[in-house]
TrEMBL record:
Recorded catalytic activity of this chain's protein: orotidine 5'-phosphate + H(+) = UMP + CO2
Keywords (A to Z) from UniProt: Decarboxylase, Lyase, Pyrimidine biosynthesis
Secreted as UniProt keyword: no
Broadest EC class assigned to this enzyme: lyase
Active site, renumbered: K93
Similarity comment: Belongs to the OMP decarboxylase family. Type 2 subfamily.
Domain named Orotidine 5'-phosphate decarboxylase: residues: 16-252
The protein's name: Orotidine 5'-phosphate decarboxylase
EC number per UniProt: 4.1.1.23
Alphabetical GO biological process terms: 'de novo' pyrimidine nucleobase biosynthetic process; 'de novo' UMP biosynthetic process
HAMAP family reported in the protein's UniProt record: OMPdecase_type2
Length: 272
């Protein structure tokens, strides 16, 4: 999917919601556990009930690969039922020496046909650029993550006398553009989201951390929204585990709808 198609979907749905698919066998409703492929059955119902409100889905690969070969099969089945106009993100946090990154890119972009993949910047240009060689595919580079440990490296000054996340954002703009590269920016990072927006005025941000991690959607929009919105705000547990009963998919729909309605108001406010 290209950038204008993604922007058009955001306009059309008045939404910048990314639904995170983190299917945990220990958390999915009991009645699904006897299904032949419980993880797939769970994600299928979630996708069916939330697709009206979502512009992106983000399966976190850990929940699938933890189940071995069967988990990879479930992942492919989930990918196949996501409507084609909805952006897909493989949250795989890959990145390795060039020849290996090239094969990771092939795995997620060709074998599986994801629109995008999260990539760690730590190994530098040759680990990231192989992912940027695919038409209409995206790298989502970890810049300022939502977890507490992000303060161990990302916000401390590097050899250029600025926080490491500044250098990641500045340097990586030599590799990719707003047409094929986004940044992960945690919803929990408050005003720092505004610093990232100053450094990358046109890039999309994937913003995890609302819902279970307590980040504020209003704050994300205040500091991170630009003229095209350029935000994909993710919620995983807050949506998919809204109920663990037979009504789980309807409960997920309600949570997704609530977030979409809030987003619609924020988009409208930003337009004025
Ligand atoms: O900085 C980051 C990068 C990725 N994530 C991932 O997003 C979801 C968040 O899940 P919630 O249940 O909404 O907290 C999860 O898959 C993380 O691995 C992140 O949280 N922060």
């Amino acid at each position: 999917m290209n950038r204008s198609q993604l922007i058009a979907q955001i306009e059309y749905k008045s939404s910048f919601l990314c639904v995170g698919l983190d299917p945990d066998l220990d958390k999915i409703p009991a009645h699904l556990k006897s299904e032949p492929d419980p993880i797939f059955s769970f994600c299928k119902e979630i996708v069916e009930e939330t697709a009206d409100y979502a512009v992106a889905y983000k399966p976190n690969i850990a929940f699938f690969e933890a189940l071995g070969p069967k988990g990879w099969e479930s992942l492919q089945k989930v990918l196949d039922i996501i409507p084609k106009e909805i952006f897909t993100i493989a949250d795989a946090k890959r990145g390795d020496i060039g020849n290996t990154s090239k094969l990771y890119a092939k795995a997620f972009f060709e074998s599986m046909d994801f629109d995008s993949i999260t990539v760690a910047p730590y190994m530098g240009a040759d680990s990231v650029t192989p992912f940027l060689e695919f038409e209409n595919k995206w790298v989502i580079l970890l810049a300022l993550t939502s977890n507490a440990g992000s303060q161990d490296f990302q916000t401390i000054e590097d050899g250029h006398c600025k926080p490491l996340f500044h250098s990641v954002i500045e340097k990586s703009q030599e590799w990719g553009s707003p047409e094929n590269m986004m940044y992960v920016v945690g919803a929990t990072r408050g005003e720092l989201i505004g610093e990232v927006r100053t450094l990358a005025p046109d890039h999309f941000f994937l913003v995890p951390g609302v819902g279970a991690q307590g980040g504020s959607l209003a704050e994300v929009a205040r500091y991170g929204m630009n003229a095209n919105c350029s935000l994909l705000v993710n919620s995983s547990r807050g949506i998919i585990y809204a109920s663990n009963g037979k009504d789980f998919a309807k409960a997920a729909r309600n949570e997704a709808k609530k977030l979409q309605e809030e987003m619609s108001v924020l988009l409208e406010k930003h337009r004025k």
